[in-house]
Every structure is written in C-alpha cells, then in structure tokens.
Amino acid sequence: MTAYDESNVFAKILRGEIPSKPVHEDEHALAFPDINPLGPTHILVIPKGKYVSFEDFAAKASEAEIVGFVRAIAETAKKAGLTQAEGGQGFRLIANAGPAAHQEVPHLHMHILGGGNLGPVGMQKSRDKA
Ligand code: 5GP
Asked: Which residues are CB-neighbours of 36 under 8 A, at least 6 positions away?
C-alpha cells in the first residue's frame, strides 16, 4: 500500500486550500458534491483522517472513526433527500480502491449516487461477459 500523499486534492479540500460546498460536516467526515457528477446527485464523503483507501481505513482507523464515517454517509444521503425514510428513492454507494477500480484520488472517498433510476450495478455487465 502506498503512503498517504499530503498533496492529494481531498487533503487540500480538508485543509481549506481548495474550496468546497459541504453537504455535511462533522468531527469525522466531510461531504461535498463531485466536481464531475455522474448523475443528478453525486456526492463524495471523505473521512477527516489520512487514509489512502477503504483497505487502509478498515485496517487502521479507530472504531470511532469507522462508525463516524458510516453515520456521516447515512446523514449525507438523508440531507440530500435520497433515503427512503425521508421519502427518497434510494441511492448507490461506491468506494473505488486501488488501480483495478481506477481510484484516482488517494484519500478514501465514498461516492453517493442518486436522484433517479440508477439501473443495475455496472459490475453486472462484465460478469455476464466472463
Ligand atoms: P475515484 O475515481 O478516485 O473513485 O473518484 C474521484 C472523484 O473525485 C471523481 O469522481 C472526480 O470527479 C472527483 N474529483 C476530482 N477532483 C475533484 C475536486 O477538486 N473537487 C471535487 N469536488 N471532486 C473532485
């Protein structure tokens, strides 16, 4: 696993060097819209700790950070009006980890996609071809 790169774009957002419009922020996490949205709602949720990927986070984060991150994802989906409990139609979570998944930014981030019919998960197509 590569070491955490302090110059990655989400580290700059956390340090306030690049502006973002937070959808949600708390002790453990920050959520903001993706700069290149793949659908009507596309939000990224990042932990405030320095974790390269999901793999790194699962191995090294404290239980409080893990619970905080999961709850922040749920709170963000709620604030975006996506949760069924709030009358929304649901959402999809994606966390790309490593080169095979084309992870571009080496700071763990959860994509929240929603705001319409998302169709079946993309993985289905490649599995069907195999
Ligand atoms: P990945 O491929 O690493 O899972 O996704 C990285 C995501 O970060 C992409 O969807 C990309 O559009 C988004 N992104 C890259 N740079 C910025 C930025 O400066 N601001 C925001 N809000 N999103 C960014």
From this structure: none
